[in-house]
Amino acid sequence: MINNTQFEESTEHKLKIDLSDKEVTRDKVYSILSKAIFRGDLKPGQRLVESKLAKLMKVSRTPIREAIIELVQKGLAVPSPPRGVKVAPLPTTEGLTEFYDINSVLRGLAARKAVRNITPLQIKHLQEIILQSEQSLKEGSLKEIFKLNKKFHQIIEKSCNNKELAFLLDDIYKRSRERFSEILSRKKRQKESIDEHRIILEALIKKDEELAERLMKKHIENGKEDLLQQIELQENISVKNSDSE
């Protein structure tokens, strides 16, 4: 089994970014580290060592320290006693269920309201996203599909013309573990998700509020069930690896 030190070394080359000639800010370093977490280059449970990250990026430890503090504040990292910090672990089943239950209700409501307000241009953008997603699936670019999935939902949330609802959805996403769905995503689920997007779009075009809301809730529920299965699989693998040590 790969230990934590070996694990860190295996991802070092992905974080070797020369920032010595640039004006380095906390925001720049935070952007780099958060994207590394979203991509899975920095795995759940992996330690974030200031001195090592500063050396890899060729910057002082101050912006690294400030960026790590922000990662903790936004839930992307957690304290690791006695004095360390590590990438936040995968969510618990209970925490994930709570998040998706709320997310399902809010996104279902957003889809219902979008039916009343969505514009032809927004419909066109949703159609283009579905086509792009299908192409990315053929190319095996699951990370690109993840980005397109986010755009799909953002357009619907924007078209509902409810700033408070959009704010709540954005806040829940930032504080949730949904971001780890990219790390655990599977090609089979991505294909299913694209198909679900298509029928949600059809409901929007038909101006069927009830159907759009129901389909969106089912879409979120399906995502939850798949992610729960993947987390259980990851946990079982970890247990087997621990037993084999």
What's the alpha carbon Rg, rounded to whole Å?
20 Å
Classify the fold: give the CATH topology of the largest domain: Four Helix Bundle (Hemerythrin (Met), subunit A)
Oligomer: single chain
Termini distance? 7 Å
Q: What is the annotated CATH architecture of the largest domain?
A: Up-down Bundle
Tally of helical runs: 11
Largest sheet, if any? Answer: 2 strands, antiparallel
Poorly predicted residue ranges? none
Number of domains: 2
Q: What characteristic shape results from the CA principal axes?
A: elongated
Helix content: over 70%
Explain the overall architecture.
It is a single chain. This protein has 245 residues and is mostly helical. It contains eleven helices and two strands, in the order ααααββααααααα. It has two domains: 8-87, Arc Repressor Mutant, subunit A (Orthogonal Bundle); 93-244, Four Helix Bundle (Hemerythrin (Met), subunit A), CATH 1.20.120.530. 73% of the residues lie in helices and 3% in strands. A two-stranded antiparallel sheet has the order 1-2. A hairpin with a 3-residue loop joins strand 1 (77-80) and strand 2.
What is the compact description of this entry?
Helix content is 73%, strand content 3%. It is built from eleven helices and two strands, in the order ααααββααααααα.
Structure characteristics:
Arc Repressor Mutant, subunit A, Four Helix Bundle (Hemerythrin (Met), subunit A), 2 domains, elongated
